[in-house]
Design goal:
Length: 456
Amino acid sequence: MAEVETPNNSRDLTRGSINGHLFNLTVPMMWGIVASLSISLADAYFLGRLGTVPLAAISFTFPVVFTFTTLAIGLGAGATSVVSRAIGQNDRAQVRRLATDAIILSMIIVILFCVVGFLTIDPLFRLLGAEGEVLEHIRSYMRVWYYGMPFLVVPMVANNLIRATGDAVVPSVIMSVSAVVNVALDPLFIFGGYSVPALGVEGAAWASLCARAVAFVFSIAILIWREQLIVFVLPPIAILVASWKRVLSVGIPAAAGNMMNPIGVALVTSFIAGYGADSVAAFGAATRIEAFAAIPMLALSAAIGPIAGQNWGADQIPRIRRTLKLAFGFSIAWALVMGTAAYFGGAWLAHAFTSDAEVAEKITTYLLIVSTSLMGYGVIVVAAACCNAIGHAVRGVLIFGIRMLFLYVPLCWLASLWFDLTAVFWAISLTNMLAGVVAYFVVLRVLDRHESEVAS
């Protein structure tokens, strides 16, 4: 078999140290995720200085922002899956064709969504409850935000294509540079200065647009000149549609899986509201802390995609098993570290988020109960990412569906009906552990079945 013709054969994930590949793909991704999170934090911080109304306006935009982000994540997962498998199959022409078609698809989809979104700003946000001055701020923000949407979605897909070749450093650098530009431009455009007028809420949208434009230019440039993955010749329409179907066969389930978590959290928040506003505040703060604690797992899940995809394409199933074993082992070890940290430092961290003693106590209780169960959550996101990467995206969305629809929401609802708030926290912990076991067996079953089919 000929050597895989990737732009850089040193990034061939079908050979070499699995430990090394996991490390090289995971660590840069962790930094990229932190950089991305800093953007929303900076927007909230600067807009909060303008007052309650601008901050409320930006909060109303979250469902739309999240929907587009989920769309980009799904398209990116689909692109990673098909391209990494083609790389593993040593099919350079197919790699370039699929990468190009994935970018074209993402452009067409995001433009269609933006046109619809732009034309429905007022009715949509009125439906969500916005009115008066808040709606005016939303209108000025979203008009600019929709113009910049191609600069959000396309770079996310492009960065996933770069990661599919085995390079996580460049995508993370692009994400970091974009975050720095956004944070630097936020105060300038929001408050004005240096001949720039104060644009308020609209200024935050312009800052984001500029930052994402930078990411767009760099990511596309890397794909064209360094990776040479973009083909400037359109194929017959049948080939183009076939490529799009392959991307969407993973992208749609992946997007659906990603949408389940915030929907589930919103439902559980409504259950917790029955315990009072202080309980909701505690749950919100605790889940934000938990989100940061889960960053290594999310980075691992991003690393699994290229490794599993390339090795699936090369029919190196034992390497996928070893990769999963290492990722699952890390998830368990990290969760134990987080549990220990919660035991010794949970109260201190809780008081850093609030001066209310009762709220701090509830945050501490959540961290003590839920932190160790992050091992199950790690198995869930890694197993689902592996299923997406190898083209079994329905199994991936099944994993998230079982966790959210059959465990998380029902168990928390029952706990809220019959017991106190602590029982809801225990329900969340139990959900993570049970769903982790299910995810473990689902992904291994997929690998076992494939090996059986190959052997027969």
